[in-house]
Amino acid sequence: MSRQILLSCLTMLFVAPALAQTTQPSAGATSQPATTRPAVMPAEQVLNQLLKPSPTAAEPLQPVPNPPVLDQTTGKAVAPAPPPVMLHREGEYIHDRTGRLTRGADGQTMEFTFDADGRGMQDPPMIILPNLQLMKMENALTSVGRDLKFRISGQVTEYKGRNYILLDKVVVPPESAQQF
Question: Which residues pair with 151 in a beta bridge?
Fold first, then answer.
C-alpha cells in the first residue's frame, strides 16, 4: 500500500471521528458550555508513531539450547523421552494377524496396521516389502472401493528401528468378518 493511501486511511480513521465529536452549541441551549475540540495529531505524525518500534517491544526469540531429537526413519521431531517402540525380532514369523493396509507417512510405502490385540495395543505398523502379495492386497482394495481387513502371515525384518514384513500369505476375510 502506498504511503498516500495509508495517510488518507489514517485520516479517515482518526481525524474524521474526532471532528464529528465536536459539537456546536445551539442558540436555545445557552446554559451548557461549549465543548472544546480535542487535540488532533496530523496524519503524518500518527503514521510515524505507528511505524516506529516501541521501546517496550518484545525481545526476539532466542534459539533453543537443546535442539529437538529427530526420528531416524521419518526425519520428524520426537517428543522428549518417548516410550520405547516394541519391535519384533529379525526373522520372526507373524502368523494369521488381521489388520488394514495403510499408506506410510512418506506417501510411497504401504504399511500393515494391526488390529488391536485388546491387551497392550503396542504393535506399531509394519512396512510391507513389495511383492505379489502386496499387489494382491492393493488390487483387492481397488476393486472393492472401500477399506478392507486382511489376514496376513509373513517374515519380519528390521532396519533402522522399524519393522518390515515380507508377506507369504494374504487372505481377505469374508464380508461377514469385514464389519468395523
Answer: 98, 171
How far is residue 78 CA from its own chain's centroid?
15
Q: Is residue 104 classed exposed, middle or buried when 0-12, 13-18 and 19+ CB atoms within 10 A define those classes?
A: middle
Determine the Cα angle at 173 with ends 169 and 176, to 5°: 175
The pTM (predicted TM-score) of the whole model is 0.53
What stretch(es) of the chain map to CATH 2.40.50?
Answer: 87-178
pLDDT at 25 over 60: no
CB 101 within 8 A of CB 137: yes
Contact 135, 150 (CB under 8 A): no
Task: Determine the Cα–Cα distance for residues 84 and 178; give it in Å rounded to an integer.
Answer: 32
Query: What pLDDT score does 177 carry?
Result: 57
DSSP 49-109: HHHSPPTTPPPPPPPPSSPPEEPTTT--EE-SSPPPP-PPPTT-EEEEEEEEEEE-TTSSS
pLDDT at 164: 96
Which cell numbers in the block locate residue 76? 520428524
87-178: CATH topology is OB fold (Dihydrolipoamide Acetyltransferase, E2P) (2.40.50)
Neighbouring C-alpha atoms within 13 Å toward the C-beta of 50: 12
